[in-house]
Amino acid sequence: MTEKVLLVDDEEDFIETLGERMRARGMDVSTTTSTKDALKKAEEGSFDAIVLDLMMPEMDGLEVLKILKEKRPELQIILLTGHATLEKGIEAMKLGAMDFVEKPANMDALTEKIRNAQAKKMILVEKQTEEKIKDIIQGKGW
Questions:
Q1: Cβ proximity of 104 and 83 under 8 Å
Q2: ∠ Cα 6 82 108 (to 5°)
Q3: DSSP per-residue string spanning 53-113
């Protein structure tokens, strides 16, 4: 099953190269250099993983992470940064990030994380569906 990924990074050359490498591995990749566009795409589309840069000019990656997780808790977000600190990593994980990866990312490791994100998302969506069905059944006075 093809992994659907949204790459968000303000460095256009970096995101184009990473996107091409992911597509070469069979992934369905969308890209954006804007956090506002990323929020819109995440709301309108369905992604198995969002790979999000920590340092963005419009909005900090942690802010974007917080907004995305509030709206769509099932989203699997991997923060990518060239400015990693232990504090930022801990904060990201507390906000619900699936992982925190330093640039330059090892493609094999990142690919594995994206595949894990897809599997985790499928389990969460399945649980949400089961809860909805359970609520519908319990809501009926049969």
A1: no
A2: 55
A3: ES--SSS-HHHHHHHHHHH-TT--EEEEESS--HHHHHHHHHTT-SEEEESSPPHHHHHHH
Query: Which residue type occupies 103?
Result: K
3-state secondary structure of 47: coil
pLDDT grade for 104, boundaries at 50, 70 and 90: confident
Contact 79, 99 (CB under 8 A): yes
pLDDT of residue 12: 94
Q: Please check whether residue 64 is in contact with residue 52, taking contact to mean a CB–CB distance below 8 angstroms.
A: yes
Tokens encoding 42? 């995440």
Residue 66, pLDDT > 90, answer: yes
Closest CA to 22 of 41, 36, 9, 40: 9
> Kind and range of the H or E element at 40?
helix 35-44
Answer whether 42's CB lies under 8 Å from 75's CB: yes
Check if the beta carbon of residue 42 is closer than 8 Å to that of residue 6.
yes
**C-alpha span between 15 and 32 (Å, rounded):** 8
